[in-house]
Write a structure and sequence with these properties.
This protein has 722 residues and is α/β, with parallel strands linked by helices. It has a 6-stranded parallel β-sheet with strand order 3-2-6-7-1-8. It has a 6-stranded parallel β-sheet with strand order 11-16-15-12-14-13. A 4-stranded antiparallel β-sheet has the order 17-18-19-20. The radius of gyration is 29 Å and the shape is globular.
Length: 722
């Protein structure tokens, strides 16, 4: 069959880059396809071309995809072009699928039954929980187990040696080397393997048995690998072994879209493709047919700054116009009020994208309170079992019941009580024996000095007061005045979970009620049924990869979240730090290229380096600016709503010396409302501080342990706050 006849069967035309990719059949080829360039269409069309134009037996072609869902989708797409009968002759497999086939065949050859594959994750969870307790001497939370599981997957997929595994102990503050060794031994003892082991065993078998390797090379002389940027090191190694001397390997991917480093994605394989296959061709598909031209231009300029990539430029194939805008609000929490109004009036497909699941929790809380429909693409509950959340929960519960010695022994060293472990154990014993509060027991225990007694009394006072405060103020007291923030800094733990708790706590009258709300949210997320007709969608950026939406809103795109870390000096940064930073840049790139028509990115007064760069500005401290092209109805509705902060688009930050009340209609009362407990401020004389409280026109600010009291109106008009 000639090309013209083949193209008539397709019913559509390919551009020159796509056509060149379809016709690349012999030898090693790397196809780099930018977002929205028609990658899947080209892959499926190429399979048809190989069969109908080149006469290749379909059973000799192996197509490796990243997920089972992708194998089914590609098979359906092929059948829609070339028929079900021909589609059934092709083999679409995940890498685990082909590894399982290798292991089964080897078992038949030697007359032995392979290890049993663990398909029930509960079995793995129970095993790892037991090992964790033995290693870490404490019961793991759901979040701990997820971390362990992710690290084990990383170890196996990255083919780490003993030294590299031990290095992970230091980086993750967990004895993962010991846990990994014990886990591996238990699997062997019980003749079990997990999904990662499938790849490890298949790789070992192919390397040691030449006949086995030759059998599969002859079975699949043509190999196509989709989503190659998400493929791990061991997966690339297996594919390299399966590729025979003819090297008819067709690898498709885009290192600019590699965002699964934590799962051991290995985009370096794309960068070293020409080195590994000296006769390789590198083809490009650079035309984006998905997004409007403004999005494409800005995204391309942004990703050009990455260094670990092939030279290519994304161009626009879509002439449709849309909005590309930055929405500046005066606080992180104002995003949620804005999106509530948007969701209430949502009729067109609209996706809210964010880095981590926890970023959406305050928005979910607000949508649920107002009975506004939405759907989530990837519900996850690890936030609720994260160490920080568990600590805060324990502290509040201890305030509610100071006789609970079990909780006391979990938190005493995380607060500013300065009690030694042996003393804490003895205090707990006295409390249990005499059925008195831990604080009363501490006063009866004669081994404590006056300084420690004073600290214990101070914590007792804080716990009493925090039960009388709104939840967000109680959290502020725990973090800034009871020493918990010092504990987080000592332990190198991010305080990002605290921000989410405060956002949810803003709507709760007490700390106790916050705990109830967390339980409610956990149940809501766990049991929520998906309404696939709902146009308002919440999704992590990772879960949105490969998808597209008419309208996209990106939240929390500021330094500390996206990106989480920024190298202080790129020239002195380690290789690992640079790789992590460039992956964060790729994550932002993937987010913006999900939008077809309209893209909106929220910013606040926090620095937003990626956003500044994307919109073509020099990176500098953020100032609240008027929102361009904001929907007037949403703006008017938001103006009369007092929810998670003041969400009126276009309003200037009320804590600035250049505040112009007449021009912007901001009243003194509204200025005062912008001061809230826990807010970070910078005073020209006293430096960085945290607002302790605001009451009756007076502001109390904590400057590194020193409390200063100011008259609000004088402070605002003085210009001393930067």
């Amino acid at each position: 069959m000639q090309w013209n006849e083949f193209e008539n069967i397709l019913g559509f035309k390919l551009n020159e880059q796509q056509k060149k990719a379809v016709m690349a059949v012999d030898g090693p080829t790397l196809l780099l396809a930018v977002p929205g360039s028609g990658k899947t269409t080209v892959l499926v069309t190429r399979l048809g071309y190989m069969i109908f134009c080149k006469g290749i037996d379909p059973s000799k072609i192996l197509t490796v995809t990243y997920t089972i869902a992708a194998t089914k989708d590609m098979s359906r797409r092929f059948a829609s072009y070339f028929g079900e009968e021909m589609a059934e002759k092709l083999e679409f497999r995940t890498i685990n699928g082909i590894c399982a086939k290798i292991i089964q065949y080897y078992g038949k050859c030697i007359g032995r039954t392979p290890f049993e594959l663990i398909k029930d994750e509960k079995m793995t969870t129970i095993m790892l929980s037991e090992i964790y307790q033995k290693s870490e001497h404490e019961y793991p939370t759901e979040s701990d187990l997820k971390t362990v599981r992710t690290l084990i997957t990383y170890i196996k997929n990255m083919m780490l040696d003993d030294g590299q595994i031990q290095k992970l102990d230091e980086e993750n503050d967990i004895k993962i080397s010991a846990i990994f060794k014990e886990y591996t031994n238990r699997l062997k003892e019980h003749k079990l393997m997990d999904y990662d082991d499938q790849m490890v065993y298949a790789y070992m078998l192919l390397r040691k048995d030449k006949n086995l390797l030759q059998h599969f090379r002859q079975m699949y002389p043509y190999i196509c690998v989709d989503e190659a940027q998400d493929t791990s090191k061991i997966q690339h190694a297996i594919i390299a072994l399966l590729t025979d001397k003819a090297q008819n390997i067709f690898m498709v991917g885009d290192e600019d879209q590699s965002i699964y480093g934590f799962r051991a994605a290995y985009p370096k394989a794309l960068l070293s493709f020409e080195k590994n296959y000296p006769d390789a061709k590198v083809l490009l598909m650079e035309e984006n047919f998905r997004s409007n031209a403004d999005i494409v231009t800005a995204a391309d300029q942004f990703i050009q700054k990455n260094t670990m990539r092939h030279a290519k430029h994304m161009t626009a194939g879509n002439s449709c116009k849309g909005k590309v805008r930055q929405i500046d609000l005066n606080s992180r929490m104002a995003q949620y009020t804005y999106l509530l109004k948007l969701a209430e009036e949502c009729r067109d497909q609209t996706a809210v994208l964010y880095r981590d699941n926890e970023c959406a929790l305050p928005l979910i809380d607000l949508l649920e309170r107002n009975n506004v429909p939405y759907r989530m693409r990837n519900a996850e509950l690890t936030f609720f079992s994260h160490r920080v959340v568990v600590d805060i929960t324990n502290i509040i519960n201890f305030a509610l019941n100071p006789k609970d010695t079990d909780i006391f022994l979990k938190i005493y060293y995380k607060l500013s009580m300065y009690i030694k472990k042996q003393d804490a154990i003895e205090i707990a014993r006295i409390s249990d024996d005499e059925d008195i509060s831990v604080f009363d027991a501490a006063l009866k225990y004669n081994e404590l000095g006056s300084y420690v007694i004073g600290k214990i009394k101070a914590i007792k006072t804080h716990l009493i007061h925090m039960l009388r405060e709104p939840a967000d103020k109680a959290l502020n007291r725990i973090v800034h005045f009871m020493g918990y923030d010092d504990y987080l800094q000592r332990s190198g733990i991010s305080n990002s979970k605290i921000d989410i708790l405060k956002a949810i706590g803003k709507r709760e009258p007490s700390a106790g009620r916050l705990l109830e709300r967390l339980d409610e949210l956990k149940d809501i997320i766990k049991n929520k049924e998906t309404d696939y007709d709902c146009p308002f969608i919440l999704s992590t950026i990772h879960a949105s990869k490969g998808l597209e939406y008419d309208n996209v809103y990106i939240i929390d795109a500021f330094d500390g979240i996206l990106p989480e870390k920024i190298p202080t000096d790129p020239k002195k940064a380690s290789k690992e730090e640079l790789e992590e930073y460039e992956e964060a840049r790729r994550l932002f790139y993937v987010a913006v290229t999900r939008a077809k028509n309209n893209l909106s990115v929220f910013t606040t007064d926090a620095p937003s380096g990626f956003v500044d760069e994307f919109f073509g500005r020099k990176i500098q401290p953020k100032k609240i600016a008027k929102v361009p092209d904001i929907d007037k109805k949403i703006m008017e509705r938001a103006r009369h709503k007092v929810d998670y902060g003041n969400a009126v688009p276009g309003r200037y930050n009320a804590i600035g010396k250049n505040l112009q009340q007449k021009n912007h209609g901001v009243t003194v009362d509204e200025v005062h409302r912008n001061f809230e407990s826990g807010m970070n401020v910078v005073h020209k004389k006293f430096g960085a501080g945290v607002v302790d409280s605001f009451d009756e026109g007076k502001i109390r600010i904590n400057f590194d342990g020193v409390i200063k009291v100011f008259i609000a109106d004088v402070l605002i008009n003085s210009g001393m706050l930067e």
